[in-house]
């Protein structure tokens, strides 16, 4: 059964949005990796940013898988 174009568009949009959040999380983590002062608080903030990056990556991967599944359904009917 074919999938609606609107659903494909939605899955693609969700994937792109998730990737943009992931990119922002990577940039935030990277910015914290080069602090002017090396303090315990900054290390904690950097580690927290890493956790947020991992969460964003997982969401992007899930969104990609959902989009890929929708494409497979559309083009290969499975």
Task: Tell me about this structure.
With 78 residues, this protein is an all-alpha fold. It has one domain (5-76). The chain contains 2 helices and no strands. Helix 1 packs antiparallel against helix 2 (40-76).
The pLDDT mean sits at 92
User: SSE string, helix = H, strand = E?
Assistant: HH
Q: Biggest β-sheet: count, sense, barrel?
A: none
Uncertain regions: pLDDT < 50 for 5+ in a row? none
Q: What is the count of β-strands?
A: 0
The number of helical runs is 2
Cα-to-Cα separation, first versus last residue: 8 Å
The amount of beta strand, in percent, is under 5%
- Total domain units: 1
Shape, please? Answer: rod-shaped
The proportion of residues forming helix, as a percent range, comes to over 70%
Measured on Cα atoms, how large is the radius of gyration? 17 Å
Structural class: mainly alpha
What is the strand and helix layout of this fold?
Elements: H1 5-32, H2 40-76
Helix pairs in contact: 1-2
Short recap of the structure:
The chain has 78 residues and is mainly alpha-helical. It has one domain (5-76). Helix content is 83%, strand content 0%.
């Amino acid at each position: 059964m074919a999938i609606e174009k609107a659903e494909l568009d939605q899955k693609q949009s969700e994937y792109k949005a998730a990737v943009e959040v992931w990119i922002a999380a990577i940039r935030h983590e990277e910015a914290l990796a080069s602090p002017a002062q090396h303090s315990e608080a900054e290390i904690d903030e950097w580690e927290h940013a890493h956790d947020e990056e991992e969460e964003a990556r997982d969401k992007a991967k899930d969104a990609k898988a959902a989009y890929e599944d929708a494409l497979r359904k559309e083009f290969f009917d499975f």
